[in-house]
Design a protein that fits this description.
Two copies of one chain form a homodimer. In chain A, α1 crosses α2, α3 packs antiparallel against α4 and α4 packs across α5. With about 250 residues, chain A is α+β, with helices and mostly antiparallel strands. The radius of gyration of chain A is 20 Å and the shape is globular. The mean pLDDT of chain A is about 95. Chain A is built from five helices and twelve strands. Chain A is about 35% helix and about 25% strand. A five-stranded antiparallel β-sheet of chain A has the order 10-1-2-11-12, covered by helices on one side. A five-stranded antiparallel β-sheet of chain A has the order 5-6-7-8-9, covered by helices on one side. In chain A, strands 3-4 form a two-stranded antiparallel ribbon. At the A-B interface, α3, α4 and α5 of A face α3, α4 and α5 of B.
Chain lengths: ~250, ~250
């Protein structure tokens, strides 16, 4: 399975994904689910994918193909020079539309055949980022290609196995949450998910984009045994146990 | 939806269920999902139900019909006097088999028709209790009528919306957990579920059977605003916030 979470805060965007994929419990692999594109100072975009891996890999390939075609254009008269890409789109909203269109194309191509063989084509993709002159935004693209945006009322998006990691986000994340605290929250959210669902697994991919800064402030892989993540995980485990212990037992039965 | 949890501890059995049922989000009702039968000093049995309400109500009705038929038998020569019931069965394992057989009958009767109309017949039932001369045991009966038993490795069973309330049980429940602490744990587990899933709702039903004591030590309805439950809920909320606050933020981004 998968767990990916994106926070859209006043201070910027925080994204965290796991890397475990499975086709049945006896066929477990590692695939990165986070993809980033950056023109430092101009645009930083991050995708995270859940669901049918062939569908989401197809979407990412289509995005890269468009970028390569445009990049290879000899000059402005080359028809490929006008190819719209996620790095040329005039808004993050338009970027989400492009990702949605690729999603719809992949679904159309394979959905009936997958369904006929009893397999699910469902997939979802979180798209977040910032372009120069625009706000930082985060969207969730569904299988049909439609999408929603994170808003101040619900400043986070989750895909995959979202339930175990949601309660802590519900309790502590607001648009005003600073990045340093938000990082701690997504670590705890991921840690709860890792503990409860074996099909979500290390290593993790982390990305941070600060508000107004069109580049990745942080983009790192968190390997098994990572000191920072392990420290938070152990502290949270102890703090939870202490919290539970601090509440009086129910006497009188 | 539904959330029901049963703990099978060395000290006894603790069961907690919500009472919310919905057929679509615009059709929400209150139905008790916990059913108890007791012959004090001889036998105490508790059922909790999740899934298709018509199926589980049918199972409970079949259990009660058998009890009534046997109870109404004029004397030992009356054929109904030999009707096997959950109060006459010679083991808790046999009680689970009886519940499973009723489940299979209901599934056979309605499943195809429900499925033809795009509806789910799936249901699950937790059966727990103790009879004199036997151990206290807890079983989970699935739609086909088969069942599993709670063991020391996993001393709790959950049905319905189980994910939000599972992490705390994973962390604190062992067979050695005393009842007073176990009650606190199921309150916290239910509280997490109530907060995250609107289709799980108050009031709650609670039952406790102490090891070796074939009667209900506690059987009460917890209404909205219940002092004990509200107190635990608020203390847990504060303790969680403090726990999160006690962990250092991730600096340096």
């Amino acid at each position: 399975m998968t767990y990916c979470v994106a926070l859209r805060l006043d201070a910027g965007i925080v994204m965290l994904s796991d890397t475990r994929t499975n086709a049945g419990i006896d066929n477990v692999s590692r695939y990165g689910k986070m993809f980033t594109w950056e023109v430092p100072g101009e645009r930083a975009i991050c995708l995270m994918c859940a669901g049918n891996l062939s569908i989401t890999q197809g979407v990412v390939t289509a995005i890269d193909t468009a970028l390569r075609r445009r990049g290879a254009a000899a000059d402005d008269r080359d028809p490929d020079a006008g190819t719209e890409t996620i790095l040329s789109a005039d808004s993050m909203y338009r970027v989400a539309e492009i990702v949605g269109a690729h999603m719809a194309t992949m679904q159309e191509r394979y959905r009936d055949q997958l369904s006929a063989q009893g397999q699910a084509a469902d997939a979802s993709i979180i798209v977040a980022g910032q372009r120069i002159g625009g706000e930082h935004r985060a969207f969730m693209v569904y299988s049909p290609g439609n999408f929603i945006e994170a808003t101040p009322d619900t400043p986070f998006l989750q895909i995959g196995e979202h339930k175990y990691g949601k309660p802590i986000l519900d309790r502590v994340i607001t648009p005003e949450t600073p990045i340093a605290r938000a990082l701690k929250a997504v670590y705890v959210s991921m840690d709860s998910t890792l503990r409860s669902n074996l099909s979500v697994g290390m290593p993790l991919d982390l990305a941070v984009i600060r508000c107004g800064d069109c580049r990745f402030a942080l983009r790192r892989r968190i390997e098994e045994g990572d000191a920072e993540f392990t420290d938070i995980s152990e502290r949270w485990s102890n703090a939870l146990r202490d919290a539970f212990g601090s509440i009086p037992d129910i006497a009188g039965v």
